[in-house]
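Predict the 3D structure for this chain.
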Amino acid sequence: MNIDYMEKQAMWKRGGAVALAVVLAAGLAACDKKPGEPTAGQKLDTAVAKTEVAADEAKQKMEAAAKDAGQAAQSAASNAAVALDDTAITTKVKAAFAADPNLSAVLISVDTKDGVVTLSGPVKTADDSAHAARLTQAVEGVKSVVNSLKPSNG
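Done. Predicted structure below.
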């Protein structure tokens, strides 16, 4: 019977030692945490949520920037097309004047802005001024003509 008693006593000692170790470990773990401080899991959850919010904000900013860049590119392309159209109109008007024996492509200034053509400079007669305006209006893309040609009546 002494052996049984001794074995039981050893088991109680080992069990007590394990229980004491668990209680001490739990106590030490609780010592690191200040009252009201979030747990490590709560801190991790908060960090993940902040990261998701920051990622969403970055995504929205990038989408807005891409949209703005697309609009700017469209606007630039449109402005370039208008400038090319104006240049083409000016060239066609000058060519029409060069082909006409009564008009001087060198002396008549042709300025085109958004399809509105302004003519200035000297012509021989009022009829030449009107003829130049008609030739100009006949060019494709011309919206209107501002005729500032000055007849010399000579």
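The chain has a mean pLDDT of 81.
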